[in-house]
Structures are given as structure tokens and as C-alpha cells.
Amino acid sequence: MIRPDESFNLLEGEVRIPSGCAISAAISRTGKKFTGEGIINSMAPMHDRSNGLGGGFAAYGIYPDYKDYYAFHLFYDDNDCRFECEKFLSRHFDIVRSEIIPTRKMPEITDCPLIWRYFVYPEHNRLVASQLTADEFTARCVTRINAELKGAYVFSSGKNMGAFKAVGFPEDVGKFYKLDEYEAYLWTAHGRYPTNTPGWWGGAHPFALLNYSIVHNGEISSYDANRRFIEMFGYKCTLQTDTEVITYIADYLLRKQGLTLEETASVIAAPFWSTIERKSPEEQKKLKFLRTVYSSLLVTGPFSIVLGFEGGMMALNDRLKLRSMVVGEKDDMVYVASEEAAIRVMEPALDRLYAPAGGEPVIVKVKEGAF
Amino acid sequence: MKKIKNIDAGGLEFSELNAIIRESGDCVIENACGQRFIAAGMSYRDLKIHGTPGNALGAYLNGGSIEVFGNAQDAVGDTMNDGSIIIHGSIGDAAGYAMRGGEIYVKTDAGYRAGIHMKAYKEKVPVMVIGGRTGSFLGEYQAGGIIVVLGLTESERPIVGNFPCTGMHGGKMFLRSDCKNLIFPKQVNIKPTDKDDLKEIEQYVKKYCEIFRADYKSVMAGSFTVVTPDSKNPYKQMYVQN
After folding, report:
1. What is the predicted ipTM?
2. Cβ–Cβ gap B55/A339 under 8 Å
3. Does the pLDDT of residue A4 top 50, yes or no?
4. Are A230 and A209 in contact (CB under 8 A)?
5. Which residue in A45, A191, A193, A242 could disulfide with A341, CB within 3.0 to 4.6 Å?
């Protein structure tokens, strides 16, 4: 049962549960790969920020043997849903490998859907006929499966990366997916404490589309304004949770509009007009342009997020910094977490620890060619 | 000689750790890692903490002392009433949230909203001294007490982020800076300190310098700015016709 049943089928704002949430991330600037063990452990001291209704991880660089293929991770309600979805997949894609994602049976994780992954590339003639880029073709197929195929949900669709998520505490979810057996140059993690909507497998973080993934601690007050705007561009918010929309905003601004990460941060966490007034004329012009053109993509309310992408990540707080977030550095490693204790678990002796200001993006990229 | 108990907090849940502290006298805690509510509501005892204590350290503290040899996370000293908290490092967001007595000393920087809603009543005057810089919204809704920020850490950032003193209607704030690059709300008065102003904070700065071994004379030689609310009712007619 990956979608909540009818009695739980409440929309954003129709149910309220008091809140928490935890995020954590670790990246090697030299592209060195490391297992998921550290990031799993980092979630333990923040255990009480979650309530067992969702945990998840995103890992970048984990499928080097299939790096040119889109890695689809799917939840299915049952095998009928799977057959239906696989028919759709084989019509639209060449599937080079399909398999059950290995998991560990454990009492802490229950009501598991079927969890599969596929390495795919858009079917040549379909792609040519569609006159779309491979990314756009793939993104549209993902949206279609999630909106139209009942009992099937693509929760990861990037290249050489994957999201892993479940209902449970993040430490348990990490063990469930055997993340200590994967090696990545970037890991992000999330522990969920759902505030407005029920906890279900699809609603756990990260939310991923193509290579972008988001983990989020907070609660977006602008959700509906953001959703209405982004749905004009073909995205569909179907997952009953606010974070999903940030993933689509990132995809829209970065991939479709071609904005830089800094510009994207200035849209999502736009500086106040009074702050803009104090900038240089050139910067003012740019910031005013971004606030004006993308006013509907300003995300208000508390948030700290980590956006993962191919070759890097961006951590960002809301402009009022209504959620805590700290950054630690040690040699080539950069760590981000809701609490310093989480970073200390991964690296007790840091070179530097600091708290970025609200709306100030922390962008970390892996050295070119090292991922 | 007083007996001091050593506690290894490694792997302990916050409730277990706090139960052990409650059964003990003075303690030295090693390997703290994110345990929340340490010493919440404590009325006596001297605690020394190594590692990274979790959120709400010393919430509702009612006496005694807490000394952290490292950084502290969010909401330290939330609603504390008495006692002292010393942090040999930085402090997270909302430090001294609604504190109404006692003292907090922070060696380096503070996060956002330090001293939010600090208050005072008669002999109860809370004091927070921050050696470094602070994030935005310092002293938001400050209603009483004294906040001192020394700006001793090197950084390109101003001594305080944006929107300091928003909603301030009581108490005093001392910033070791000319504050020319800061924008304050209309409802507060900003002026360079005179001798009488500085007298008010001498003992606290002296204590800061003793704890963290800073040079008192050179700290006091810097130029200070004092911020106070503009009148007894600076927000008159802002929300209601009063």
C-alpha cells in the first residue's frame, strides 16, 4: 500500500501534526567515494527530530557501471501494478537491467511495497518522434507514471544516483536498504516528522526528479502558490506533501530556465526588498529581475534544504532562518546538518564549523571530472 | 572536598543522561552528542560538559552553572531564571530565548535571534555576553535585560546581521561597533556610549575576559553603541488605536 487509503487521503492543510524533521549531508570535493555508514550514524543523535513516519537518503555516484542510463527506483502496490508499469516502461524505454532493490528484512520496517529498480534509456524512435531531449522525455514519463498509473510510483530517476526511502526512522531505513554497501561521493539524508500530511512511503524524503533531489526540514507556507505556478509547466504535485514542489522548482529553474544555483537560491529564498536596496546597482537589478519574474516561486515559511545534483549540492535556509542548519569542513569533506552533533558523529575534529545566514546558499561542487 | 561525578554520555539517550545528572551532585560530562534538555530546570550543581550538548541546554535553569568546552546548539537557556551558562565556543539559534535571570557567556559567535524576548523584573536582570558576532534578529522583542556583543571574531560580516532589535521595547543592548553599517528600526534609540553607560557593563565584560582570557583593556577601548527602546510605549498605534 504505497498510497494512503481513502480515510487518510487528506490534502495538505487538512490534517495537522506538530513538527520536527532532520537533515544531514556529506560530500567529498575530490570525488572520493564512501559508504552510507557515516550518514546513517549521523541521523542517530537527531533521532527525536523524527517520529518514525519517514526516512530516506540520496546517494550520488553509486551506479558507475550504468552511469549513462537513468536509474528508476519504483514502489509498487503489487505485481499487477508492476506488470502494468513495466509495459509502459518497455514501450518508452530500452531497459538494460531490471531487478528488485536488495533490502534487509527487519521488524522496524513494515508494510513494504514491492521495490524495484530499472536502468533505462528512452527508446530511440519514440525519443526522435517526441522531438524532446532525453531528460525532458524521461521527466515527462516519470510525471505520467506518478499521476496516471495507480499503485506505481517512481521515486528516483537520475543517472548514477539514487534515492532510497521508507516509512521508519532514518537509521533503520538506511539499514533496510543496505546503504553501507553503496559508495557515493555525496550522501544526503532525512528524518521525517510529518506536519500536515500522513506519513507514507512516497511521502518520505528525498524527493527526486532526474538528477535533482531534495531533503527538507520545514513547512512551506507558500505551497499552494508555488504548486499552482509550477503545475502550469507540466509538473504534477501528487504526493500530498509540500517538499515535492521544491524539487520541481529546482528542476524548472536549473534545467529548464538555465539559472545558476546562486540565482535559484535568490528566487526560492529571495532577499527582502529592504536588503536588496543596500546592494550594488548591478546586483539590485538582477535581484529585482529575479523577484519580479519568478515571484510565484518564492518559498516562504521555515525551511532548511539540501539540493543534490550531479557533481554537487546546495544547502539553503529560508531568508528568516527559521530552521537551524550548520556546515562543517574537514580536508576535502563538507558536511551539512540540522544539528552540529550530527556532523561531529561523521567527523569529530573539524577544520571549520559555521552557520550560514538565512538565504545564503552553501554550494559545494566536486572537482571537475572527479565524479 | 566535593565529589565530582564523571559521566560518559556516549550512546546515552537524553532522558537517561538527565536522570543520571539528577541523581548526582556536580558532574563532568564527557562525549555529549546532541542530548537535549541537559540540566533543564536545574537549581544547583556545577556541570562541565565536553562534546556537543543538544538543544535546549539549561532550559528553565534556576541556579548552578553549566560550562561547555565546545559549541552549543539551539535554544540554550530558554526561559532560564538564574545561574550561569558559559560556552567556550559558538552558540546556535535563539540563545537565551525569553530568559528572565542569570547570565550567559559565549566565547565566539551566536546564531539567529539571540536574546529573543529577554525580559526583566525588579532585581531579575538577565545578561548575555557574546564575544563574537551574531546572526539576524538579535534582541527581537527584547523586553528587558542586557545584551552585550563584542565582535572579537574576525570576519567580513557586520557585528550583527539584519533586523536587529525588531520589536524591542525594553532592556539594553551594547554593541562594540560604531554600527554605521546597520539598520535599526525606528522605535529604538542608538547612541555611542558614554562613561556612565559603560559602567553598566564593566563587570560583565571583565567576567568575559577572565573566563576566556581576553584583554579587558583593549576590549573596552573599542567604541561601543548602546541601543534602547525609544519610549515606554514605542509601538503605540502600530497594531491598535491606543
Report:
1. 0.94
2. yes
3. no
4. no
5. A45
